[in-house]
């Protein structure tokens, strides 16, 4: 058995919420504004509903095997060969892709803001090193770290929103339904529902207190992360109308540079970059940890740490494949639907396999 450590529900909620929230610090809000225009705040609503359903489906799966993670449950449902193949091709690959693309976009964003003349490979390697360290220390250390920093992150976000109130124009929210409610809802659902934190919670379920806490942790963390994302989107559209917001590479950084509260409090982007770096390193560590632990459990290895280094190298190479930041963002948008498979399709397949096995036993008796 892999020794992961244990932590409480509060740490688990903060950990998953901060990891999910990290996408809001990159160019992700701009893509949502492109989808729905002034109704960008509506786009996460469908994704939130789907995420809550995904948490519920996985909780149903765990009721059949309360002492295991999603990795062992998949193998029990489909057998050792098919189950291991599904875990490697779906779960491990999802963590690797999400981590690699986030690492590249995060590094490109750092190039845009501060390190403009540094090679992208060096920045990628620097942040990957932080991810390797966090994954090596383990999920308990990451959870405790998240518990320590979340108040500073929330305080920074709150100060940002309140400082931008003088720049708000409520006419920017018109028309309220944006480019069309059906288009906004369906496209926004697809764009926001694919989050790796749902399957991550299923992988670390035993470390965060077991199955009895899974549903509550999943529901609360999703509500917090999506709620904050909605607030940030509303603030973005209120501050800049949606045609202008579509032009920002890093909308949240632009909001920070807009702040002006007198002569001695303006453009506090240095604080933003500090918060941004800590949350980004946490995200990379979690994706690398999830990939290593999932692969170790699939291969029945007693320790996950030797797998961190090769998986980190794979993540580094994948992150360098896109030619530039627009290519990385477009690839992220294109592959975002892949995360829907481990989040929602995999638990449905497991439940179907259990149902078929139950029908077979009834027919045999």
Structure commentary:
With 365 residues, the protein is mainly α. It has one domain (9-354): Amino acid/polyamine transporter I (Up-down Bundle), CATH 1.20.1740.10. The protein is built from 16 helices and no strands. The longest helix has 34 residues, at 80-113. The radius of gyration is 21 Å and the shape is globular. The mean pLDDT is 86.
What fraction of residues sit in β-strands?
under 5%
What CATH architecture would you give?
Up-down Bundle
* CATH homology superfamily name: Amino acid/polyamine transporter I
**Pattern of helices and strands:** HHHHHHHHHHHHHHHH
CATH fold descriptor: Amino acid/polyamine transporter I
Structure classification: mainly alpha
Name of the level-1 CATH class: Mainly Alpha
Unreliably modeled segments = none
- Beginning-to-end CA distance, first to last residue: 35 Å
Question: What's the number of structural domains?
Answer: 1
Q: Tell me the number of helical segments per DSSP (H or I, 4 or more residues long).
A: 16
The total strand number stands at 0
What is the average of the pLDDT values? 86
- Give a quick account of the main beta sheet: strands, pairing sense, barrel closure: none
Helix content: over 70%
- Label the overall shape: globular
Radius of gyration: 21 Å
